Amino acid sequence: MGLHAPMSLFAFDRLRLLFRLRTRRSHLGSPESLLLAVIIAAALVVTTTPPEASAASGPVSTTAQSGSQRSAPTNWVTPVPAMETIEAFDPPDKPWLKGHRGIDVLALEGEPLRAPTGGTVRFAGPVAGVATVSILTESDHVLTFQPAATSLKKGESFTAGEQIGTVGSGGHCQRSCLHVGAWPAASDRRYVDPGKFFGQEQSALLPLSRKPAKEPKGGGDSTTSGAGAWGGHSNGRIPASAMCQLNTAPGQMLRCDAQAAFDRLSTAFEARFGAPISVTDAYRDYATQVILKRRKGRMAATPGTSNHGWALAVDLGSGINSFGTAQHQWMRANAPKFGWIHPGWARQTGSLPEPWHWEFYGHE
User: Fold this and answer.
1) What is the pTM of this model?
2) 184: in domain
3) 8 A C-beta contact, residue 283 and residue 259
4) Domain for residue 38, yes or no?
């Protein structure tokens, strides 16, 4: 009976039940009744599919496909901190044509390569002469990083935010960069935009003339910084035991009260926009601050002075990272209810406009 076997068995079960009912009621004796039963059975064979069969076989409906796309992750850890896209995703119209099948992000040789999410190593080695690391994520996406190297072996697992390798040298960029490619494992290398996994589809690089010599100090209201020293810790040297991981952005760490408040804020954001807030950066330890200073020069804070070094600041994607969007406006209106502020210096008219930068002030 081939592909129609489940339908046929289902239909004849219905027919058998029909015969039993009609026999009990003593109405099956006439030829007309028997003919009617056969006609009903034939219709069931052709048109009826049991629930189990429809769920297990056949193409996925358009509704199901769109639901799957809506649930695609948008809150992964960026492979390098303070990720800046210098060349965007630009796939070709046809698979055999030239195009940019991923994104290039600014990175220097030797920088740690972070796991965007949990998964396993799929491949590590040279591809066309370029050192390559490929991973399979828990969401069944394949991600490739070039140039990059790892000491992990094929099949080894890792968690979100864990260092899985280092950025290598070479590659196709004129500037030092890391190329990131992505596709669903079930597809025939149908590339997708990796930036969307990080809630970051664009980047903004401010002119050096607008970068103040020193970052604004904390002052206690929404026109200044909400970040500052606490617990006797030094900037960028806070032990992991004094912080908590964000539930809505695994791999990112904050002081525990800030983490709890942010997770509540992110849940409210998800109720409004359909996905939790993407956190591109939260706590930055001292070593990461040193890396960013090397990479970005005057555009980065002096190591040991970054607002992120207090575990009370976040950089966000999800549309919040652009002034004037519905997401950014929602945050301006609602984040203070959860103890999070957009400091005045980071606002559009501030001394260092950064729509993506938000800080915990603690007044819920």
Assistant:
1) 0.67
2) yes
3) no
4) yes
